Amino acid sequence: MIAAAAENNALGKDNDLLWHLPDDFKRFKKLTSGHKIIMGRKTYESFPKPLPNRTHIIITRDKNYTVNHDECIVVHSIDESIALVDNEIAFIIGGGEIYKLAERKSDKIELTRVHGTFEDADTFFPEIDENYWMLTKQEFHPTDDKHKLSFTYLTYEKKETVLKNL
């Protein structure tokens, strides 16, 4: 899973982000380019067009939903989306409901923790269960002329995976 969430786990409001963090966008592009990205229909529809160099797997309950782009595949469940990933890296990119469905099926979380709280958000990232996830890497990014908010890149891995590799 890959996400940017505030300290109160806020992800967005009205199908849009609550902040503008250019370095986080660059990191997202670097990590996800060349891979499959799995998302809900609302997340997909928040993009002006499909993101380049990525296969989009869109989850929707609407059996009649179609997308006219070769790089997009429409499915109707999280399990159906994961079945399209064959021993390769794929990223769950949102939204809130999809993150909740995918959390136990994922083996890593790349989270940008945005240092602030946004009470008016309408979409949230699930609480990270530290009994299940282990923080393995963190990198702080201070505010600067392009970033009004500071943030920290956090990498979590499933505890059983981390412990197995020790």
UniProtKB/TrEMBL annotation:
All copies of domain DHFR, residue ranges: 1-158
Q: Does the keyword Oxidoreductase apply?
A: yes
Q: Which GO terms describe its biological process?
A: dihydrofolate metabolic process; folic acid metabolic process; one-carbon metabolic process; tetrahydrofolate biosynthetic process
The chemistry this enzyme catalyses reads: (6S)-5,6,7,8-tetrahydrofolate + NADP(+) = 7,8-dihydrofolate + NADPH + H(+)
- Give the GO cellular component terms, alphabetically: cytosol
Q: Which domain of life is it from?
A: Bacteria
The function of this protein is:
Key enzyme in folate metabolism. Catalyzes an essential reaction for de novo glycine and purine synthesis, and for DNA precursor synthesis.
Q: Which protein, by its recorded name, is this?
A: Dihydrofolate reductase
The organism named in the record is Maribacter hydrothermalis
